[in-house]
Write a structure and sequence with these properties.
about 500 residues; mainly alpha; two-stranded antiparallel sheet; 23 helices; about 70% helix
Length: about 500
């Protein structure tokens, strides 16, 4: 780091970590008190920046550095993607897509373990469709959870199936905040720009499908064993949330995934999804024009304003973390960590990837599993570590995103478990037979994120899926990369 960019602190450069430490304390405090608040997390980051000012020798340079941390992260592009992705996700959610999955499960008469498998698949499909893990839990838990218990599903593994589906959606969806952040944080070194979302999704599909297949087998083996409470009550619950027409909304999802992975660009994919979803929704009666924009109590509401405002939390967390990272970087802490990693851990490509995996796993624990935080923090640092040995941006993004979506979903103090417990607890008055698993019992029940962590570990140890960046930014094998490097 050049001296003009270095930020000096009183006493020792370790004080550049103070803003981040305060942020971590805020996040951990929320989790320990069974609270989940994006606003409070953002406030923790801002308070960290304010307190950190008193440790800096030059206050003006301190805040200029925080601003540069945001500017250097392609924040403008990320925010625009969030805006458009938020509208698409809102179209899919407002159309009642979840009711289509419920109709499907109800029609084929699933019970016990088969209902748990169905819950995982339906939750995953909904998550990939909307790009929101929190939305998946909040939307599907009130319907699938009590119905599954009535139909003989094991409550612990039924919960694990919902959490697993949310993790699958967050990991694989082109419109997911973690997908967007993991791609945008991985710049090419051989050409301009960052990893494109379509290429990232296309390259990570193999890891997701392997983890999903294994999870389905495990849910089929362990998901039953519950007590059948009463078919009529289940039938009434499921029937009230069943709508076969909602399955037409799978068409926009296909458009988005197709355009994204075929190299048309994420904006093209999202716009195709918004327009096709809107047209299909209107033609099938799933949506009305007033669903898009209307005035209630003097305020504009609907898909358009709601889709944008629903992404504010993720965007502001991203901006706050980039400012915190800017301070850390200018204080020399990030550079020191990368230098130490290069000397002791990242001596090979495998070592670099293991370092990225371990680093991201640790941040899962420190930030209570808030995946947006994890990817925003680890993405830029993993980029530096991965570039040491020329690891391709797609691979760096995939390791970062996959690991962020593992322990986040099943460690006892996970934000997602807190959200699930809050939603499930609200069902007790209507469905007194509902039992809510203890957080510690879910550690080995959310099979998809657990298996995904192991899949990534095996891929790192064996080299499965590892690609390097070629001279034009293309993904190449180790042999081609080494031949080009030697020639250069």
């Amino acid at each position: 780091m050049s001296e003009d960019k270095k930020l000096e602190f009183f006493g020792h450069q370790i004080y550049s970590f103070v803003p981040f430490l305060i942020f971590i304390i805020f996040v951990a405090g929320l989790s320990l008190n069974n609270l989940f608040s994006m606003d409070a997390m953002i406030a923790g980051g801002v308070m960290g920046l304010i307190v950190g000012t008193f440790f800096a020798k030059d206050w003006i340079k301190y805040w200029d550095t925080a601003i540069m941390g945001i500017k250097d992260s392609a924040a403008g592009m990320v925010i625009l993607i969030f805006f458009v992705a938020g509208i698409f996700g809102k179209v899919m959610g407002a159309s009642g897509l979840a009711d289509g999955f419920v109709w499907l499960g109800y029609t084929i008469n699933l019970t016990g373990a088969s209902f748990v498998v169905f819950t995982f698949i339906a939750s995953g499909a909904f998550g990939v469709s909307t790009g929101t893990s929190v939305g998946t839990i909040v939307t599907l838990t009130p319907v699938l959870y009590p119905a599954g218990i009535i139909l003989g599903a094991n409550p612990i593994f039924l919960t694990g199936a919902i959490l697993s589906g949310a993790a699958l959606g967050d990991n694989l969806a082109p419109v997911s905040d973690t997908t967007i952040l993991s791609a945008s944080s991985q710049p090419f070194s051989q050409k301009d720009g960052n990893a494109d979302i379509g290429g990232v999704v296309r390259s990570r599909f193999k890891y997701s499908i392997i983890a999903s297949a294994i999870a389905i087998i495990l849910f089929a083996m362990f998901g039953g064993g519950g007590e059948l409470i009463g078919g009529e009550q289940a039938a009434g619950l499921l029937a009230s949330h069943s709508n076969p027409r909602a399955l037409f909304m799978l068409v926009p999802i296909i458009f988005v995934i197709y355009f994204a992975v075929s190299g048309r660009g994420i904006f093209t994919a999202l716009i195709a999804g918004i327009f096709s979803g809107s047209i299909i929704g209107l033609l099938t009666g799933l949506l009305s024009f007033s669903d898009f924009l209307r005035v209630e109590n003097g305020n504009p509401v609907g898909i358009i304003p709601g889709g944008i405002s629903g992404m504010y939390g993720a965007m502001l967390i991203f901006v706050t973390v980039m400012a915190l990272l800017g301070i850390l970087d200018a204080g020399g802490i990030v550079g020191a960590f990368i230098a130490w990693s290069k000397e002791h851990l990242a001596k090979t490509a495998r070592g670099s990837e293991l370092t990225m995996m371990i680093f991201t796993t640790i941040w899962n624990f420190l930030t209570a599993g808030v995946t947006t935080n994890v990817v925003a923090i680890c993405g830029p640092i993993n980029s530096e570590i991965g570039q040491i040995h020329g690891i391709h941006p797609y691979r760096r993004a995939n390791i970062t995103d996959a690991i962020a979506n593992t322990f986040s979903y099943f460690m006892p103090w996970s934000a997602f478990i807190l959200i699930f417990n809050g939603v499930a607890g609200g069902l007790l008055e209507t469905y007194p037979f509902v039992t809510i698993p203890t957080p510690s019992s879910l550690f080995f029940a959310a099979f998809y994120p657990l298996v995904l962590w192991l899949v990534i570990l095996v891929s790192i140890l064996t080299g499965f899926g590892r690609k390097y960046e070629g001279t034009g930014g293309e993904a190449v094998s180790k042999e081609i990369y080494n031949s080009v490097t030697k020639a250069g």
